[in-house]
Amino acid sequence: MIFLGIDWGKIFSVPFWLEVNPGELSERFEKIFLVVLAVSYLFYGLSKLLERNLKTKREFIRARFWKKVGNFCLTVAVSFTFIFFFRYEAIPILGGRFWILIWIIMDLAWFIYLVRYYFVNLNKQLKELESRQRLHRYFKK
Q1: Spans of all domains in the chain
Q2: What does 79-105 look like in DSSP terms, one character per residue?
Q3: Does the reported pTM lie above 0.90?
């Protein structure tokens, strides 16, 4: 089945992903790769700005979350830059499609960790901080 110029039957087959020498990139995939890189670097810059802003407001718990997001975005961008380079130069084994699959799986796992951290751990840490501040109010001299 061909949709958006992509043969989806090939994408869901194992030999497609395990091909060691996949050949040259199409122009569409080059553009997609470059957009992913640009978005990753943009989100990295935004997360660093948010982290710096929160540190000046002395909200260190939220700043730590944005530091984790920045690390995620930078790692995604740098690793994908290497993948794009090896694919663009059509280097056997290092330019294989399976690296993209591994990259997607690892980034998805890291993204799920960040979402879990935001909704579970961050709220718990903020509540603990609030209760500690409430207790310290009574112990001031």
Answers
A1: 2-139
A2: HHHHHHHHHHTT-TTTT-HHHHHHHHH
A3: no
